[in-house]
Amino acid sequence: MVEEQRRRGRPSVSSREAIEAAAMRLFLRDGYATTTVPRIALESGVSRTSVFRYWGSKSDIVWSEFDHHTTRLASLLAASRAGSPTMTGVREAAVENMRLSMHDSAMWLERFTVIETAPELRTEEAARWAGWARIVANHVAARHRQEIDDVVPQSIGGAVQAAFLAVLRQWRTTEGRSINVLQRLDEALSPLCDAMQTWLPDTHDRHTS
After folding, report:
1. What percent of the chain has pLDDT over 70?
2. Domain tally for the chain?
3. Where is the HTH tetR-type domain (predicted)?
């Protein structure tokens, strides 16, 4: 009886992280589509109101950290060193952003797995990765006095995003998931960014904020 009352009441530790962890467990075990907010609340021992205090919808539990990751990428790119080559700044920002995201959330790989395996999230996933690529394209365009929709910025944004995503997919599917994802990112992006640097217009990089 006491245990039942504890489950119904507010637990001593009722945090955003605990609810998120419960949600990810359910998404991975039972599937994203069949997991409801009431089930997430029950699993984490809180009320539905507590879940909605942090997220406006079920999908927000999946996307909130991804959106933060993307927003921070723009900030890191804007703060990249003015005197360094554009693509060096892109590589460094992408790797550092991943490091910070992994530090912020122990559930990053689980979240990525849910995103990659839930058909219901496929459209949103494509749109968000396109937004990630556009942030890189915007940075390149600004530093080289081009329009964001010009061929070079768009191609660079798409190529860097594709390499970044490929490493995350390798991380997710590697047996034991024991790869050093930050090292692998740096190794994958280094030759790509070096090659892309030679493709940039012969104008002096200009620092943007």
Report:
1. 88
2. 2
3. 13-73
